[in-house]
Amino acid sequence: MRRKYITDIDMIKLPGKIPNLSSIAEKIEYELDFDYNTSVTRLETFDDFLSEIIEPYKKGEKIFYRGEKVNKIDRTLIPTLFRQRRLLFNEDETYINLDANGLLDFYNSVPEYLEVYKKIIGKVNVSKMYNFLSFSQHYFGISPLIDLTKSPFVALSFALKNRKEYDDDVLFYTVEIKNDADYTCDMKTADKWVSEYNVTVFNDNLMDFYEDFKFDFKQYKLFIEGLRSQGKNISNMSSPSAKLIDVPTNDLMRFQQGVFLLLNDFTLVGKGYLTKNVRDDFLVKKWLINKDICPILLNYQLKERPYYNYDTITDLSAVVANIRNHTRKEKKMTQYYPEHLLNQYSPLIANLLIYLFAITVLSLTFRAFVCVAVNYDAKARGVKEKTLYTVLSFFFPIIVGIVYLCTRKNCKKIQPKICNNCHTTVDTNSTFCPNCLGTDFTDYLIRDNEKYHKNSKIFLIVGIAVYVVTCVVNVFFNVYFDKNAEPFINDIERYSNYLDNYDDKDDYDNHDYSNHFDADGYFDDFSFPKDDEEETQPDNVLPNSLQ
Q: Most CB within 10 Å of its CB: which of 80, 86, 373, 537?
């Protein structure tokens, strides 16, 4: 006889109305969200990016940005320190408690690096550690800080990385503050927040817990015991608090308009952490930018903020050098624009000059060979207008060559006569031989006739070969220029418009907000430095040291 077991499920009394399961699922997903995946928004078009990202920025809304360097959509928003967590553990450690002292111990494990900092900057202690962590983030590449920026153009530069092609969508973050108490511009406050740092990190042998729950019993037991020892449980283990630190510590950070996000008081298992608490204090949005609009965004970023070029964005000396190169502007645009043109498009212009030289040489060679071929053939045939055909074939080789081939048999010939009696050469118009008075004549046979025919064929064949080479060169360079010359042509057209409508006003007069082309707009579009009056720009993105 089978015994009937009563389970907990049997004891549950269903309510009269069954709850909406989808709404329950949404709440669970929100509570257990990793890395803000519940709030992912796609930006499909360039207009979407302008309306969602750029317009709030231009309105002056307090928003912070991050563009991911690594081209992985599933990349989590965690500090660099925890992307290399193996460096934190001994072999027998399952988890560690990482506080401010633990951070200092970690850096002490690399004494050479710490010694360099002490010699250059100064001593490091737990109570004043923010400056050291900032330095470590930029120059050591490992810290508990997460880079953000006040400029969407900086974030966009890091996300796009000057790539010509994009195989995947691009990852982009925006962060808005809900509580001003979680934001500071004060060094002492930043030091205090760092000194209170306390994070529990589990070793790599537990990395897959969130992904697939494939723990054996021993691992699970260790995991639970580790949580209990910290007075935590699974429901509250990975919910960090967050602080935003806006204290630049070097010129590079000022140039990039950098700020730091500090996540504290959480448990890290696997590749992410629960984001609920962070989202209660900050509005963090995760954006996926359609890969198809990335080339358009790259051109937009380089046009709007050329000094945030990804190739130089981490090298302030290169940025300053580029700005210095453009400070020698003249009063007349015609004097300084060619220099800018040559600098920006020098490879294209060099290839263009090579192409023009090659085409010129090939064209002259082809014309010369056709000209000689016609001349030899006319000699062989005794064509009366030999000189005329020869000259015209040089200027119009194809047309004249075809006409000559079609008419050479019927052309007027040079036909001096030979007296059959005494073999004297007689003028064509003579009716009798001046030597013997004979009247019996035959036509004159041109000397070296076969030699001329042979030479004509050789020059014609070589000329055709040169023409084929010319066509191949033309096709190759046309394909190359179609692919690379569009920005150059557009700049030339814009430059012509500016010259046609030239006035010498400063960058921020009323003309800047109309369709009128003037010198101020020219400076903006072609990335020239601004004069003293132009430093009233409302969007002050450069640090004072660069203005």
A: 373
Strand order of the sheet with strand 241-245? 40-43, 282-289, 170-177, 63-67, 145-149, 258-264, 241-245, 183-184
Assess contact for 232 and 267: CB atoms under 8 A. Answer: yes
pLDDT at residue number 226: 61
d(CA 433, CA 420): 9
Cα distance between residue 372 and residue 378, in whole Å? 10
Query: How many Cα atoms within 13 Å fall on the side-chain side of residue 435?
Result: 12
DSSP 456: H
* Amino acid in the structure at residue 447: R
Query: 383 forms bridges with which residues in the sheet?
Result: 413
DSSP annotation of 248? -
pLDDT in tens, 300-314: 998 888 888 888 888
Dihedral sign, Cα of residue 101, residue 106, residue 107, residue 112: positive
The residue assigned the tokens 């109305």 is 17
Phi first, then psi, for residue 167 (nearest 5°) are: -85, -25
Structure tokens that stand for 174 in this block: 């925006």
With contact defined as beta carbons under 8 Å apart, do 166 and 294 qualify? yes
**pLDDT tens-digit series, residues 91-132:** 677 778 888 998 888 888 888 888 888 888 888 888 889 999
User: What pTM was computed for the model?
Assistant: 0.53
- Contacts of 317 by beta carbon, 8 Å cutoff, 6+ apart: none
User: Which residue ranges of the chain lie beneath pLDDT 70?
Assistant: 1-38, 69-74, 91, 204-239, 270-272, 274, 276-277, 322-343, 413-416, 443-448, 494-547
- How many Å apart are CA 183 and CA 179, to the nearest integer? 8
Contacting residues for 344 by C-beta, under 8 A, at least 6 apart: 491
Closest CA to 265 of 320, 214, 201, 311: 201
Q: Which residue has the tokens 């019993």?
A: 217
Write the DSSP assignment of 372-383 as a string of letters: HHHHHHHHHHTB
Phi-psi region of 68 (alpha: psi -120 to 50; beta: other; left: phi over 0): beta
pLDDT at 265: 82
Q: Which helix (H) or strand (E) holds 74?
A: none
Please report the pLDDT score of residue 53 as a whole number. 94
Q: What is the pLDDT of residue 271?
A: 64
Q: What percent of the chain has pLDDT over 70?
A: 68
| Amino acid in the structure at residue 535 | E
CA distances from 44 to 40, 64, 157 (A): 13, 21, 18
The reported pLDDT for the residue numbered 469 is 92
What ranges make up the beta strands (E) of 69-169?
95-99, 145-149
Rounded CA separation 413/343 (Å):
60
Domain ranges of the chain: 23-314
SS3 of 487, please?
Answer: helix
